Every structure is written in structure tokens, then in C-alpha cells.
Amino acid sequence: MSRFVFVNAILPGKTPKVNEMFRLIRNKDEKSMQLAERAASHNSMGVSLWNAWIQHTPKGDLMVQCYQGSSPEMVFAALRAGIQAKSPLALGERNFHLEVTGDDLADLSSTPKVHEVMSLEFPTNKWKSEEHFCIGFGWPLLKGKTQDYEKFCAQEKNDGFNKIRQLLLPYGVTSFIKFIQKTPKQDYVLYYCEFPQSIYEQIISSKKVFEAKANEISSNPEWQKIAKALQEHTGFTEKELIPDIESLGFDHIVIEPALKADWK
Fold first, then answer.
1. Are residues 136 and 64 in contact, defined by beta-carbon separation less than 8 angstroms?
2. Which of 23, 99, 135, 157 qualifies as a FRET site for 175, CA 20 to 30 Å off?
3. Shortest CA distance to 137 belongs to which of 7, 3, 4?
């Protein structure tokens, strides 16, 4: 079962529309029915878990999503099949993306072209409860810098990620994955992190504490090397690299895989 993170740039002025759409879903009176419909559509797409966030950056807002289940090719092929079948859910998803990102999910090119460049698990940080919290974030790469940054990622892999493990272990991280996404307009470096509930409540849910922790880690030589590479390849300052993110409200929705349902 794969897990992949991808991003869509939000069109200028459309971030309130993204927030409003998810607010309506969260406040819907028939929420149990809405979740059942969403579960059926996720099963059709081969998705067992989904999360989404908005990230604010100096270069514009991003909608970051994470799917767990089938490959991106299978998930988005199933979504296109739903659009062709005129499924209300699939058509609604298409219309929403067209309005807020300008991307057409009916187009083959909408399938995210992502590849994983790092995956770290921290069993010693695993929590007893099944509940977990996660964040996804990333930054656009400067034009012409993707290949150089991929070389940097390859060097990290050659080093065995041991220094990065030691850097992240004290902060309660349980899973850390890095991706490169390529699109016709823009390439991105993306991250996905999981934390136990206690760490989330202590650090991630408080922007002030999160920024204090980020300042604390900034003196580490390994982070300084990583930050320098990110600054060189994204054009962001070290302060701008601190993620400014907000959840779209589906962190805890986990849909168990079942027999694939037909689009309705």
C-alpha cells in the first residue's frame, strides 16, 4: 500500500473558497451520510486514507493532499472514470478543482507525477493509541533547480539518512517521507510527517511552540545543511521555510479498504 503527497497551487483569491467548501462539509447536517458517500468514492479510487492541508507561502497558497492506497495512476484513473460516468461526487470534485486551482481532473495530465526520495520510520516513537496526527507541506522549486536538488536528495540517500534520523528522533516524529513532484508549470519538494497525539498537542497545534522548536533545531549542523540546500533551490529564506499550514479538517478520517464500489 503506497502513500503519496501532492500539491496544487491555489489560484489568487481562491483560498477562502477552499476553506468554505471544507467548512460546509464539516458542518453538514447529514454528516454520517456524507462520510458514507465519501467512503464509497474512496473505495472506488482504491484509497484507504486521505488528508489535506492549506499551506501559505510568500509565493502563493498551496493545497497539499495525501492519499494512501493505490498508486497515483490508479487513483486518478478511477477518478476520471467517475467523471466520465457523471458521478455527482466526481463531478463535484472536478468542478471544485477547476474553480480553485484551474486544474482539470478529467485531463490525464492531472495525475500527480510524484516520486519518493526519502522514507523514514521511527518505531521507538510509536504511540499506544491508534490515533495519529500528520502534516503535509512543501515548497516550489526554482526553475531549472529540480535536477540539482534531486542530486542533493541522492546524496542524502547515499549517506543512509542516519544523520537525519538523529535530527528528527528527539522530536517525536514517527514517520517522515519526502517527495519530488513535477508539473508542467512548477516542480515541488514535499514532506509528510506523522506524530503521536501528545506531540501534536504540545508542538504542532501551537504555531508559537512550533516556531520555537523550529528555532531550536536551526542550530543543528545537519539542519543547516538541509536548510541551505532548500534556500538555494527554492529561493525562500530560512524563516520562510517554517511551514505555515492549516488542516482542511480530515486528519482523522480513515476509511478501511473494502470491495471496490461502483461510482454512483
1. yes
2. 23
3. 7
User: Which CATH number among 3.40.50, 3.20.20, 3.90.1150, 3.30.70 corresponds to the domain 2-112?
Assistant: 3.30.70
Residue 84 CB neighbour total at 10 angstroms: 11
Model pTM score: 0.85
Q: Residue 263 to residues 40, 45, 83, 260: CA-CA distances in angstroms?
A: 8, 9, 9, 9
d(CA 252, CA 254): 6
3-state secondary structure of 76: helix
Interstrand relation of 113-121 and 244-247 (parallel, antiparallel or unpaired): unpaired
Q: Is 59 helix (H, G, I), strand (E, B) or coil?
A: coil
Which of 194, 223, 192 minimizes the C-alpha distance to 64?
192
Other CB atoms closer than 10 Å to residue 122's CB: what's the count?
Answer: 16
Query: pLDDT band at residue 256, thresholds of 50, 70 and 90?
Result: very low
Q: List, for residues 1-10, the tens digit of each pLDDT value.
A: 678 999 999 9
Is the separation of the CB atoms in 66 and 60 below 8 Å? no
Domain parsing of the chain, residue ranges: 2-112, 113-246
Mean pLDDT, rounded, of the chain? 83
The dihedral sign for the CA sequence 234, 235, 238, 244 = negative
As a whole number of Å, the end-to-end CA separation of the chain is 25
